Amino acid sequence: MTSIDIGAEEDFPLEEGVYIGHEVTGGEPIAVFRTDEGIYALNDRCTHGNYSLSEGWVEDGTVECPKHASSFCLANGKVLNLPATEDAPTHRIEVVNGRVLLTPQF
Q: Which of 28, 35, 34 is nearest to 7 (CA)?
């Protein structure tokens, strides 16, 4: 799949999620997170329920679902605690000349 330019690196606030809708991704909505370690992309929906991970809390390389507090590793999507039991799908991110390029993995 082709990479999508989703903005400048500074458009993504540190330790916050940014919602990228299906009209941009061509599939499921994606949540993009920027930390001091890098920029990461996961499916926006928690695997436990229909709640937006982009609205979750970001800390120490994880995002916590705002509804039931399941946490996911930003780097690989692994679920870290219950009630979720399924990992969150991840998507490829590259930063080229300060631009964030998303390659959805649908």
A: 34
Distance CA 34, CA 38 (A): 6
Q: Please name the residues in contact with 40: beta carbons below 8 A apart, sequence gap of 6 or more.
A: 32, 33, 34, 74, 75, 90, 93
- Enter the pTM of the model: 0.95
Q: What integer pLDDT is reported at residue 62 of this predicted model? A: 98
Q: Identify residue 13 by its one-letter amino acid code.
A: P
Q: Where are the beta strands (DSSP E) in 1-106?
A: 4-8, 17-20, 30-35, 38-43, 57-59, 62-64, 71-73, 90-96, 99-103
Cβ neighbours around 26 below 10 Å, total? 11
CA distance 81 to 102: 27
pLDDT attached to residue 50:
87
**Residue type present at position 57:** W
Asked if 63 contacts 55 with a C-beta cutoff of 8 angstroms, the reply is no
